[in-house]
Task: inverse folding
């Protein structure tokens, strides 16, 4: 893994969030509800990161996040989850699950 990425056990990530990420990674086939249950447990180092800081996480593995979403907020959210330790495919699923439940409520 690229050393620019911070592992889920980093102090930059809330301890409960790190444990939740580890539990999710141990599931054979995580369900939508598993992604919806995952949370940050408060603000962490990544919560307030914008484009400037998160561009460091864009590489050949994460570029699909930028291609996957039209909304800048969804792109930033997925990159934050990658920075916290989620694999790219799980970060995409997390943001899609959140958006399906919460995204439309915020827009109304």
Result:
């Amino acid at each position: 893994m690229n050393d620019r990425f911070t592992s889920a056990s980093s102090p930059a990530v809330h301890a409960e969030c790190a444990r939740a990420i580890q539990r999710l990674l141990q599931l054979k086939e995580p369900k939508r509800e598993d992604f919806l249950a995952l949370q940050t447990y408060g603000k962490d180092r990544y919560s307030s990161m914008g484009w400037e800081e998160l561009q460091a996480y864009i590489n050949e593995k994460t570029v699909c996040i930028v291609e996957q979403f039209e909304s800048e907020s969804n792109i930033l959210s997925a990159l934050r989850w990658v920075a916290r330790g989620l694999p790219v495919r799980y970060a995409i699923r997390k943001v899609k699950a959140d958006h399906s439940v919460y995204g439309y409520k915020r827009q109304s």
In short: The radius of gyration is 13 Å. Helices lie at 15-26, 32-37, 51-54, 63-68, 72-84, 88-107. Confidence is low (pLDDT under 50) at residues 1-10. DSSP finds six helices and no strands in the chain.
